[in-house]
Amino acid sequence: MYPEPARHTSAERAVEVHQPTPLPPAVMAPAPVVPLQAGTVPSVASIILPDGRVVTGYAISPAQPEPLAAKPPVSRAAVNVALGGVGFLAVCGGLLLLTTFITALTALITQLITLAAVCFGGFIAVQIFKPHGHQGGTTVNIRKAIFKRSNFHG
């Protein structure tokens, strides 16, 4: 039913481009004039194809899509409320982080003060409860004092 495809070499595959030749309009007996609205009936065109066939038809303009319904504009008040809400959330988040930071810093300072108090109190306790023979006064090395005295008077 269908012819078998012929195998062509690449040189034989060259494509020939044929430009259609328009036909002159056919001469016909004048038709009665009927008033029509302008642009409602397109003109008829005929062309001759390279193989001799004649094609007649109307020129078709591309279909225009339906215009989209215009979206109602968003009011400035709605935009301002939305932006205000976003700004309020940002401020609340920042204050929450700031409060957390201040709380952590306060806890750190409190722990450092407590550590310093414990260390200083421990040092003082060791000094008070340290066992030693003298309870106040100045320690004098008697031998050196005598030696110095002997050399002084010597």
Quick gist of this model?
With 154 residues, this protein is mainly α. The chain has helices at residues 76-129, 142-153, and strands at 21-22, 44-48, 54-58.
Protein traits:
3 strands; 154 residues; single chain
Task: Describe the protein's architecture and organization.
A hairpin with a 5-residue loop joins strand 2 (44-48) and strand 3. The mean pLDDT is 75. The chain is built from 2 helices and 3 strands, in the order βββαα. 43% of the residues lie in helices and 8% in strands. It has 154 residues and is mainly alpha-helical.
Please describe the biggest sheet, giving its number of strands, its sense, and whether it closes into a barrel. Answer: 3 strands, antiparallel
Number of helices: 2
Percentage beta strand: 5-15%
Number of strands: 3
Helix content: 40-55%
Query: What's the order of the H and E elements?
Result: EEEHH
Structural class: mainly alpha
Radius of gyration of CA atoms, rounded to a whole number: 56 Å
Unreliable sequence segments: none
User: What general outline do the C-alpha atoms trace?
Assistant: elongated
Rounded mean pLDDT is 75
* Order of neighbouring strands in the sheet with most strands: 1-2-3
Query: How many angstroms does the end-to-end distance come to?
Result: 151 Å
